[in-house]
Design a protein that fits this description.
This protein has 110 residues and is mainly alpha-helical. 34% of the residues lie in helices and 0% in strands. The protein has 4 helices and no strands. Helix 2 runs antiparallel to helix 4. The N terminus is likely disordered.
């Protein structure tokens, strides 16, 4: 259940609540997220990633091929999980140039 007061404070601070690794914002970490990052990197589909922070799987401040590798490694090779916020939704406390215009899947922080 969502703590409405905490959620309202998050909204007021203008930090979008998201889940790292869910690049296509469908509520799951799956191969579709890796494909969305590939399309962003190699097919110039910049407008398709509404929350670039979620595609920065390792939270290094950039969307790179390593983020694709990290998603696939997590899914199929028992690799490390994405950086926080993961597995629950949350905010990103690190400072980087990536934005998150919207992430409709997370209604309340975990």
């Amino acid at each position: 259940l969502c703590d409405r007061k905490e959620f309202d404070l998050q909204v007021l601070s203008r930090q979008v609540i998201f889940q790292r690794g869910d690049a296509n914002i469908d509520g799951f970490i799956d191969i579709g997220d890796a494909i969305s990052i590939i399309f962003f990197l190699f097919l110039s589909e910049n407008d398709k990633l509404l929350c670039k922070k979620s595609a920065d799987v390792d939270d290094n401040g950039a969307i790179e091929l390593t983020d694709v590798i990290d998603v696939l490694s997590y899914l199929y090779l028992n690799g490390d999980h994405p950086s926080t916020p993961f597995p629950a939704c949350g905010t990103d406390d690190t400072s980087d140039p990536l934005d998150c215009k919207e992430f409709n899947f997370c209604n309340c922080p975990a």
